[in-house]
Amino acid sequence: MDADPPLQLRVFNLNCWAIRYLSKLRQERIGLIGDTLGQEGFDLALLQEVWSERDYCELKQKLTACYPYSHYFKSGVIGSGLCVFSRYPILDTFLYQYSLNGYPYMLQHGDWFCGKAVGLLIIKICGIIFHVYVTHLHAEYCRDKDAYLPHRVVQAWELAQFIQHTSKGADVVLLGGDLNMHPGDVGIRLLRGWTGLRDSFADTERFEGCEDGCTLVPANCFINKEELQPFPLGIRIDYVLYKGLSRFVVKCDSLVTTTGTAPGKSIPYSDHEAVIATLCVKPREEAKGSSGSAVEPELVDVVNEARTEVRVGLHTAERQRYSNGRMAILALLLLLLQAAMGLSSLVGWDSPQPFPKFSFSLLSLLATVVLLLSMVLYVFHTIEVKMLQGTEEQMRLALQALQDKLSSM
Amino acid sequence: MDADPPLQLRVFNLNCWAIRYLSKLRQERIGLIGDTLGQEGFDLALLQEVWSERDYCELKQKLTACYPYSHYFKSGVIGSGLCVFSRYPILDTFLYQYSLNGYPYMLQHGDWFCGKAVGLLIIKICGIIFHVYVTHLHAEYCRDKDAYLPHRVVQAWELAQFIQHTSKGADVVLLGGDLNMHPGDVGIRLLRGWTGLRDSFADTERFEGCEDGCTLVPANCFINKEELQPFPLGIRIDYVLYKGLSRFVVKCDSLVTTTGTAPGKSIPYSDHEAVIATLCVKPREEAKGSSGSAVEPELVDVVNEARTEVRVGLHTAERQRYSNGRMAILALLLLLLQAAMGLSSLVGWDSPQPFPKFSFSLLSLLATVVLLLSMVLYVFHTIEVKMLQGTEEQMRLALQALQDKLSSM
């Protein structure tokens, strides 16, 4: 093996922002993405937000010669939006849906309907087993008052755990996606600390693209400049992360991002910038076992910080469950009262109905709708509470194992 | 290693049927289960249907001396019901919720509310890494016309895939649970064929208990005899499955089931019989690699059979989605018509309201409720369709990989 030349792998990652009827210039952009993937001949293209399967099929048809293997992960109401085009055979796939993913009633955000998930593909390239993960976490709509932070932290934790538990048979682990987290955010630190994944931007030998590796930049014409005001350079939320296991080491030779437009074109591929990483996979020279599995003491703090966020989320979820339960009981009482009044006036116990019939019926309509909705929401928030409690407990167990490991070192 | 004596492991598996307010003699039975676990000192106790966390806490408190390590998996509205008591430290846990699990409107069955899942625990015993899986699949309410068969097949497939993808780092894989499938059912054949897990009942050297290893038997006083009429001996739906990986072989030295009552008592532990397996783990003598990973040609037929079931489910789900969509549109049209009539009579275009106001309002109440419910169900069945399509596609890919493997053998 040592005599083999290193394997070079070019990986393209992009959040395509392809929502039918809503995303601007969708068809042109999908065409442009297809053209670029075809011309550039990457080894792997990891795409997010390809919400319409028709767009996926269009890309698949166009790229069949250059990327004979591809996979679209289905989940949620709309589809996960995740798909992968590969030059090498996909041996197996597996999908893990995050247990928490926003709220169905937040229609204007819509993340719940997407069934956010992480997709795993097992790909063999020149005898090396790659576990390729593609994902898209819950969006951040307001950084100062981020109601979805606990859900995103749970997703980051589940992503980290999913990678750890499913990558034991891999030679190389590769994760691409829109993580909706800044590089210093607790979720990213948790993910990187727990899995040992390396950040291609931090580790690359050559970088070309937006300053600080940003992938949401004001230069992009689809970006709402006001939202990026606190970050004049933009933000970095799209990542290519990797690690070599057992017999292999991985390095990032170069990293390129687009800079507001597609190269040589007047429009961008998407509202996100594409990230193109050139990775180099080499057999490990040192003895087996030195794959960097040493535990960093800072990880304890990171897991504790994440656990605190989960606890905050738990507190909110419990409050929401309580108020939905109270609302359901009130609506039920109102309905019962109305039923009693209606019945008593029907059997003639009472003088004629004290309220006009129309308002009376309108009120019962309202009470029924409120009762139904509060019941559904009560169930929903109960599930949320359970999942947050479960995650908190898992993190507690993980912390304990971590501390045992550290004290035995 | 070869000089080490074989490791003997006693595993207790039971579906506890502990539903608060509904299950008969719940408290007595939980007490009895706790006593037995305490007296017998098994190495592992895998329990299902411990729906109430209070029951789990009661058991935990009672068993803390004998089983210092335990875990309860939280999910769904009620909790997954899955918990494990262990004599050995639990290093890590992970939960995978099945993507399909019945219907929320089937309140009388209630499986949807339980968030059926598979829990993974990583346990190290005498230096051997055990991946212990505990699960409970969707119940079968009517064998002749089993509306949940496609969901159960999807669950069996996800269980098999979850085990395959998460067990690469294990020395021994152990699965215990109520699979709600007879030994010859397609889901069991798929699970066993895909993972290579061995059935403790089929492989044991010594068996003692109900004929054919049945775990739902007419002798149990909680069993509805009529439901078991087609199976005079009972049915076997609770399993302990295992396999040794890489350096280890596992054998089942003995298997015992209870026979309608708890030993020496007048009542049973549950409506299911307990399964107690004594496993023997030994270092493998042959060269590494001969861990029985050969592909059986029959597996192709099994995956095809499972895929057909998924397709049947897909057809049904599409039909249900269609009828819910149609119902929602009809309800919306009715509401719009009523709004138009109401408005026109308000602005005085029309002669006085042709319908009595009360019936008019009642009708709009009904239309609103129908609209809301059909919309929710439309969304629900759309998710179901997506997941069935996704599973079908995954099975197609798996079949292809299987056929490639077979043709290269």
From TrEMBL, chains A, B:
Reaction(s) catalysed (UniProt annotation): 1-O-hexadecyl-sn-glycero-3-phosphocholine + H2O = 1-O-hexadecyl-sn-glycerol + phosphocholine + H(+); a sphingosylphosphocholine + H2O = a sphingoid base + phosphocholine + H(+); an N-(acyl)-sphingosylphosphocholine + H2O = an N-acyl-sphingoid base + phosphocholine + H(+); 1-hexadecanoyl-sn-glycero-3-phosphocholine + H2O = 1-hexadecanoyl-sn-glycerol + phosphocholine + H(+)
Membrane topology label: Multi-pass membrane protein
Magnesium in keyword set: yes
The keyword Lipid metabolism is assigned to this record: yes
Annotated InterPro entries: Endo/exonu/phosph_ase_sf (IPR036691), Endo/exonuclease/phosphatase (IPR005135), Sph/SMPD2-like (IPR038772)
EC number: 3.1.4.12
Endonuclease/exonuclease/phosphatase domain sequence ranges: 27-272
Alphabetic keyword roster: Hydrolase, Lipid metabolism, Magnesium, Membrane, Metal-binding, Sphingolipid metabolism, Transmembrane, Transmembrane helix
Subcellular locations according to the entry: Membrane
Protein name, UniProt field: Sphingomyelin phosphodiesterase 2
